[in-house]
Design a protein that fits this description.
The structure is a homodimer. By secondary structure, chain A is of the alpha+beta class. Chain A folds into 2 domains: about 45 residues, no CATH class; about 140 residues, Nucleoside Triphosphate Pyrophosphohydrolase, CATH 3.90.79. The first copy, chain A, is about 20% helix and about 40% strand. Chain A has 3 helices and 11 strands, in the order βββββββαββββαα. In chain A, the strands form 2 sheets. In chain A, strands 4, 5, 6, 7, 8, 9, 10 and 11 form an 8-stranded mixed β-sheet that branches. Chain A has a 3-stranded antiparallel β-sheet with strand order 1-2-3, with no helix packed on it. In chain A, β4 and β5 form a beta hairpin. The first copy, chain A, is globular and about 60 Å long. The two termini of chain A are about 25 Å apart.
Chain lengths: ~190, ~190
């Protein structure tokens, strides 16, 4: 879908910025910007520590590996994909497979361009900041090791059929943008 | 997709919480929680001002109304749907149609349960906070009024075919989770 940049709204100019809050997980920055009209405007941005990476994996029977995890952000147990932060990883695919292995003990029997494919990426909220999740699909998952989870990770694994997964997304049982997007990309590619 | 709650990981107990930052757009809260292991843990949460609501609308020719808008969060012009914050709106559908009309000057010729349908909702990031977007689909869009945009809204409107929209999501041209999810829900429902 090509666009003519001349038809796009102009970018804003940032005149000054200051950090209103920062810890190891995120920073809140207040930008003083100049709008296209020339007016001054104050804009609150969130900077997150690292990109997210997640993997939607299928076993030999074609079932999908999902997680139930308590997420303190929303204060409930949610359906999600194995994944985590790509802490300084140059290779996002490797980071995704590492998170998959650590959280679930599973890995694809072979790793190549046919068995592990990049699906796409989604921003958490392009109005708030640059936080983004990159999502891969992997086929031929096998149990290869014990899990090795972070201190705050308590995860129950579930294998579900593609039909049940698609229905759970359609019906709103699943609300994590990463799972919803992954199912959309797989369907649009004809891979599920 | 039913689950046995007995198989779910337990929720965490919040022992104390304090607000580390707050302005009109968001708050950062630090929770002192007790993990299921009994260990103490500090967790950073984001509280956003209001839920988001967006509308993916079709005109009589079946084309979809998209926006190009500069979003200062990511610092670029992005593809997105008409929408905004549901500021205290009890009726999310009405809030979505109001945002649609204000940002684009368009509305469905008729508003009923056939012409405006709830598609679903996605969290920005269930690990960070409760920020959520609710998405509706509307059919029969017509130009009904001038636009009335917020001071920081500079929007270019585009009508695209469903085929081009699906390809743009599949190929990663569109990365806003709301658009990606909307396309997924429409396809899973057989509505696009």
């Amino acid at each position: 879908m090509t666009t003519n940049p001349a038809n796009d709204p102009p970018a804003w100019a940032t005149r000054a910025t200051h950090t209103a809050f920062r810890n190891r997980w995120l920073a809140v920055e207040i930008d003083e910007v100049e709008l296209p009209t020339g007016a001054a405007y104050e804009y609150t941005r969130l900077l997150s520590a690292a990109a997210g990476v997640a993997v939607i994996g299928f076993n030999a029977a074609g079932h999908v590996l999902l997680e139930r995890e308590y997420r303190h952000g929303v204060g409930q147990v949610v359906w999600q994909l194995p994944g985590g932060l790509a802490d300084g990883d140059a290779d996002l695919r490797a980071a995704g497979l590492r998170e998959l292995r650590e959280e679930t003990g599973h890995a694809p029997a072979q790793v190549n361009d046919e068995t592990v494919r990049y699906l796409g990426s989604v921003w958490d909220n392009p109005g708030f900041g640059t936080a983004i999740s990159h999502v891969y699909a992997a086929w031929g998952l096998e149990r290869v090791s014990d899990t090795r989870r972070d201190p705050g990770e308590f995860v129950a694994l579930h294998w579900v059929t593609p039909a049940r997964l698609k229905e759970a997304v359609r019906a709103g049982v699943i609300r994590d943008r990463v799972v919803v997007a992954a199912v959309g990309w797989l369907v649009l590619n004809g891979w599920m």
